[in-house]
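Journal club prep — side note

Before the paper discussion, L.F. wants everyone to see what a predicted structure for a comparable chain looks like in token form. Sequence:
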Amino acid sequence: MLRTLLALALAIQPVMAADLPDLGEVSRQYFSDQEEQAMGRAIMRDVYADPRYLDDPEIETYLNQLGYKLVSVSTRNQREFNFFVVNDPSINAFAMPGGNIGVHTGLLLAAQGESELASVVAHEIAHVTQDHIARMVASQSQSYWPTMAALALALLAARSNPNVAIAAIASTQEYSIQTQLYYRRDYEREADRLGYEMLTRGGYDPRGMSGFFSRLQRANRFYDSSAPAYLRTHPLTSDRIADMQARSEDAPYQQVEDSLDFQLVRARLRAQEDSPADAVRAARNVLKEKRYSNETAARYGLATALVRARQFKEAETEVQKLLSGKPVHPMIQQLAARGALDAGHHGLALQRYQAGSEAHPGYRPLQYGHIGALLSAGRSNDALTQVDKQLALYPLDRRLWRLAAQTHAQLGHRLLSHRAQAEADALSGNLIAAIEQISLGIKAGDGSFHEISAAESRRREWQDVEKSQRKS
């Protein structure tokens, strides 16, 4: 379904006038904030269920940190955003309703610097902040909303496979809309300009934008129907390239060093490619031939590949080298703990998770790992203490709710386990599953009067929302 839901986003990606438009109420006349959020939740439900969604908390955390760094310097930063990763080798990124922005692993690996990656993410953020989806709806008649709902079912296809998207759009029998989706190049130019401003304010090299798009344009000369997905979903013109280059030439030169986070994420992705044996071989060759810009990241990549190949003795040797550096990056701390856990050294894993959690209390992937390790060791009450503490800080974290469900299940708390799983389902956009789960918990009958009352109230709330969505 990720393939079918991806057509509206791309469709929505391609506008741009010289001046910012007056967004006002007119852009929301036929497509309200509530309708967009509902569509966004429905889309993400299918994204999370799709096998190509990369459920990697560390890579997703990095992408959200990068994204929110750019959002924080935007002139329109009142919206919530959600950045996620699609395991797809094509060079692509896309914005969807509800502030959801997806980035393909192919883009993360193809970017020649963090500023290039940031330029694409900033471009997508601008599509959201400028309400391009709502503006397209407002430009149509009121009858356009049902078509938008139909197109939402083809959203993910557009970004990953434009040919599938064309078929999905044609099936709505609204051929004029197809033209709207693919030829609104003024939106693209507007996103370029605002994205460029975010890059500059965020401390990235503004030349990253012109460099990335120019390289794509040059590469496109060697393609025919198999042009890079980003070019097929984001119309690229010579005027756009010229405008980006002109802005870059006027900007003062500044050399921006790639963050260690960026380097580690790319090393992590490479270590997950091909077979485990091939990944280890490739990582060893990178170090042997010194084909790296950061040795720490290269060693992290090798250690990650070794853990994946279950070569734990060699992995621990590399981990010890990484832990000798100070301060220890949270991704390295997470790898050290995970490697020990996979090798069966539960005590060492818990020590490393504890140390990492104390050193980096705000790094949630470490907290996930720590809670999971406590559950693996049978320390359910300690896991419950940890998960409750984290949920008090991050009540909208679906991964924490899943861990809470596992913790309560291990403790024999049936109502609370089903309630926690229901919260995770609701946060993943699946209200039907949430209602089913919480109903099972209520039927279990092992909760206190207060817990049962709270669960019944939550169920009624979700039922009301789900009913209203079915009517819209």
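L.F.'s comment for the group: Residues 378-472 form one domain. Keep this in mind when we get to the figures.
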